[in-house]
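Subject: complex prediction, re-run

Hi both,

The earlier run crashed halfway through, so I resubmitted it with identical inputs.
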Amino acid sequence: MADYDTLGSVFAEGAKMAPPNSDVGDVQRGAGRPRDPRIEQAALAAARELLVEVGYARLTVAAVAGRAGTTKAALYRRWPSLPHLVYEAAFPDDLLKDWHLGADLRADLLGIVVGTRDAFTTPVAAAALPGLLAEFSTHPVLHNALLSRFASVFEAIDDRLRDAATAGEVKAEARSEDLLRLMIGAALIGVLLGPETLDDAWAARITDILLEGIRP
Amino acid sequence: MADYDTLGSVFAEGAKMAPPNSDVGDVQRGAGRPRDPRIEQAALAAARELLVEVGYARLTVAAVAGRAGTTKAALYRRWPSLPHLVYEAAFPDDLLKDWHLGADLRADLLGIVVGTRDAFTTPVAAAALPGLLAEFSTHPVLHNALLSRFASVFEAIDDRLRDAATAGEVKAEARSEDLLRLMIGAALIGVLLGPETLDDAWAARITDILLEGIRP
Amino acid sequence: MADYDTLGSVFAEGAKMAPPNSDVGDVQRGAGRPRDPRIEQAALAAARELLVEVGYARLTVAAVAGRAGTTKAALYRRWPSLPHLVYEAAFPDDLLKDWHLGADLRADLLGIVVGTRDAFTTPVAAAALPGLLAEFSTHPVLHNALLSRFASVFEAIDDRLRDAATAGEVKAEARSEDLLRLMIGAALIGVLLGPETLDDAWAARITDILLEGIRP
Amino acid sequence: MADYDTLGSVFAEGAKMAPPNSDVGDVQRGAGRPRDPRIEQAALAAARELLVEVGYARLTVAAVAGRAGTTKAALYRRWPSLPHLVYEAAFPDDLLKDWHLGADLRADLLGIVVGTRDAFTTPVAAAALPGLLAEFSTHPVLHNALLSRFASVFEAIDDRLRDAATAGEVKAEARSEDLLRLMIGAALIGVLLGPETLDDAWAARITDILLEGIRP
DNA sequence: CACTAATCGAGACGGTACGTCGCGTCTTGTG
DNA sequence: CACAAGACGCGACGTACCGTCTCGATTAGTG
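This time it finished cleanly. Structure:
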């Protein structure tokens, strides 16, 4: 995943249009030298390394290119700007791949809390998150990319909560939106203030508060 | 508060500290031309205006200086860097001045939620917050400034919760830290994702969830 | 002359030096986007204009860049500092291109006096000279550039004087070094104290004094 | 010499006017705290030291004040600007105090050459000269100060040469102006290109060339 | 002996230029 | 086409020095 097409569909703003001979439906594999597939991985790996080493603020395109053994132009051919690259490096597409809901409501909520915490407390993610949040407020494209990625998760939780309401496990008026924001917000604050306190006991306490908070 | 001395105690790195024996005739006190107090206010006001007009990312030291009718050097004499100035401009010391707890636990919690939301949804604060969060991870001084500011609030809520536990209103094991982080995190996420949803109904819902969550 | 390579050989500090084995297929030769040759000429022209308009002391890198339609960074890519640019602008390499010695000793000496005066009394040179002299003592690279430029002239005059000594026109112990310094010094002092007195009669008088001074 | 009054007469531009009670002819020794006479000497000494240590270009008012144990304001009370201070430090008023002409024309000329060389090759003067020359072309006040200082010398040499012409020692049309410029120019060039070559043999050679050059 | 007035230290002031850095784009020659 | 290389315009950075100013604290002479 995380390949050119996926990126293009999320970030491209028209410049990455398929070449004119795409009428036959073959993806733009047309004329010209093909892209070196190693560059993509090398760039993401370099970005991850540098994020941990120097932090988001001191991360530069030239440094990523140098570490990846390529040049700035090759990176700008793949990502519209540095934040896009960082976003993909810190939060790859496969982040949510083995995530699912089950029958036990508390286990499901705990899973979300733990999953969010784990996604945020990765050294790479912890280094990238504050900077990316700042970019989100400036670049709506990035913002939407984040939201659309979590849209399916959001819907799934919404359904799960509705089922729980039907089963009488939670209040009918409980909103998945509120719950999710509380969980993500708690994890985010934890990362910003010091991720060392976000142990499993913390996750259990947060889950219990929220679970009791929406019980009928 | 929010005056020159307070600033010095938070940001200065030793040079501006009053010597411990300053109770006697301290000769150095007030040597040199005193700082023009209007510059400080003008700079903070200019920063607030520009934050709303152009946003954090496009905010420039030169622009703040120009709008304030002074020069970059005068600003660097007062704040180590632009984020420090922005922090003080967006979150002045008197932010928490008329804040207090009462007898009604729900009212107290709601007050915190609403107060945090109001502090974060100010146009100035909303513009500054994402950028400042990114800087916090770079500038530990700023980070500590934020934490120390909320330290007293934290203690007060801690005491309030302990009283409530004694009165049987909440669980004995309820932690003010968890509660506070949930409340602040919810407001923060709200600001980052779209502050238009943070109405009074939202505050009431969040308060109710948390209150029920810690009931015995 | 006065082109990119000559500049490199005079001012560059190793980075731009062609490697000694560059006779074979030197891969690095010409890598990257080539420098825009118009910028070099535009910068020199802008410097010349501004030297006359505002003088050396008020000459700014930003002003030269602005007038040349480029930016400071492009200038710093070509010259280590403003004095280097000014030096090349005021005293280009082709300054001595149509200079030669002949059979008449007095005519030769007069030619040097007049040539030096003309080179120094150009509006551009007159504006640049005092400032450059001050920089010479700070930047030895500039100093050496000046000296090496006159080295060939120096040798030619040395030979000419030796021939004249053989022909019995001048004393055997007459030193071209002394003579040249007297001539250049007289012109320099003239420019510094007021170039309006350096007419052709002045040149004739100076030439006659020096010529008689070294007659046997 | 070199005191306040002399300075005032040379440099002051009206600001240093005597107070209104000076009608009785007493120099402004009126009210107010008198100037600390040690500051003047300390500043000149500090300037001399720093000129040799860091050169003219890196010499700053703050550094001179610091080295002299005083402040910038005290210096600006005595000299209109840094070049004025440097000028007086490098070329004090008593420079020409034991200078005179005699009966031997060659000895007189040699004296001027040697005297100029000695005045220019002092470490302090050699460090200050190029920078001061650059300032001269910008600040006519300084320029005039230099010229007026040498005016008497100039006249004396003029007379001396006229006497020599009457005595048949030199051509009638020989100009002291040309001669003096040649001598000063030679010394100046020598300092700029490397003062180590300006030994006594050099002085003798220069003197002989010029003397022969104006012989009838 | 108080009063006046200039100087002292200290250091902030407005102003201006410096040289550097990073961005995202472009223009070469070479696959 | 992609790629390595590196220059390009743009704009901001944080620093340094200038010469001036405003303090409170001396330090004389004057009334």
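Residues 28, 30-36, 39, 69-71, 73-74, 77 of chain B lie near DNA strand E (CB under 10 Å from a C1').

- K.
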